[in-house]
């Protein structure tokens, strides 16, 4: 997807602050962090929203969480706790339409979220 910000990062046209990369997944620090740790975990393949996932994507989505686990461990927030969020569509706050798992931590997290 040529007009997708996260696809441009995957392609190397834009260089994010990468914290993890493998064949299928890229993780980088959010440009507008909402917590001391705020990392976005992104599949390299373009999928617009959660609504566009199909059964074949189950393993890939599971992998996003395994990467989140590694990111949290590396940033030293695994034990104190962290939040993972994937917004779906504008009403939930999705602004980049390439799915991404937010990993937020390093400060207390309130519930319910706004
Ligand atoms: P969402 O609102 O759930 O779609 O999340 C999109 C996230 O992408 C927001 O938290 C933005 O701050 C973040 N973001 C937008 N542009 C960039 C960028 N160039 N590098 C890193 N993060 C970005
Ligand atoms: Zn994309």
Automatic annotation (TrEMBL):
Q: Where is this motif: Histidine triad motif?
A: 98-102
* One annotated GO molecular function: catalytic activity
Annotated HIT domain ranges read 5-114
Active-site residue list: 100
Among Gene3D superfamilies, the record links this protein to: HIT-like (3.30.428.10)
A Pfam family per the record: HIT
Residue ranges spanning the membrane: these are none
Protein name per Swiss-Prot or TrEMBL: HIT domain-containing protein
Please report the organism this UniProt entry assigns to the protein: Candidatus Tenderia electrophaga
